[in-house]
Amino acid sequence: MQADNVQSFKETCGKQNAVSWKRCRAGCTERFAAGGASSESSRKDACTTLCDKKDKNMEVECEDQGTNLANMYAINAETMQAGSKCTDLHCKDFPQLLTTKEEERADKLKGMCETQCKDRKEVDECKSKCDKKCSLNNLKKCTSTFSKNLNVTVDYCTQLWQWMYKSEEIDPSTGNPVVL
User: Do both 83 and 161 map to the same domain?
Assistant: First the structure.
């Protein structure tokens, strides 16, 4: 499914690039040939040349962004696998603690143990055993190796939106497209 998403992204990006190229050239004509075909032909030519250059660059950029998406999927898969190993080793009964902020884990574990033990005869003994089912210290050590990857999706989406915004920029002083 993820490979299909990457392929679909590249195709959609390419189609959008074609639409942008046409719009860019039409904008050049609108800005620099409004007074007739030869009114500002050198400026129009410069503008359309930039549109063509931008189009070529966007083809490469679309491919690169697709590769970035594939890389993000791979990193997320590795992170999920590492998280699963950490919970299996150190906190099997409470895997949801993995996604809990580190500073909130002890309180959440305590609350889950209280809920689990509330109807038991030996509540204190149950809580003590429950607490020992999860080594928060070892979980912390284990998760530190992959926690830097937890925001990879947010980072990818942020840079993607910035790239899309920048790809539509027009130089206000010349009216020409900005080539990335």
Answer: yes
Domain count, the chain: 2
What pLDDT is recorded for position 38?
67
User: Do 12 and 64 lie in a common domain?
Assistant: yes
Statement to judge: residues 28 and 97 lie in one domain: no
In a domain, 66, yes or no: yes
Digit-coded pLDDT (tens) for 90-107: 999 999 988 888 899 999
Judge if 15 and 80 occupy the same domain.
Answer: yes
Whole-Å CA distances, 105 to 38, 98, 110, 127, 131: 71, 8, 8, 16, 12
Q: Is the pTM of this model over 0.70?
A: no
Predicted confidence (pLDDT) per residue in 129-178, tens digit: 998 899 999 998 888 877 777 778 888 889 989 988 888 888 888 878 88
Is 145 within a domain? no
Residue 105: other Cβ atoms inside 10 A: 20
Range of the domain at 99: 92-134
Instruction: State both tokens at 134.
Output: 């999860």
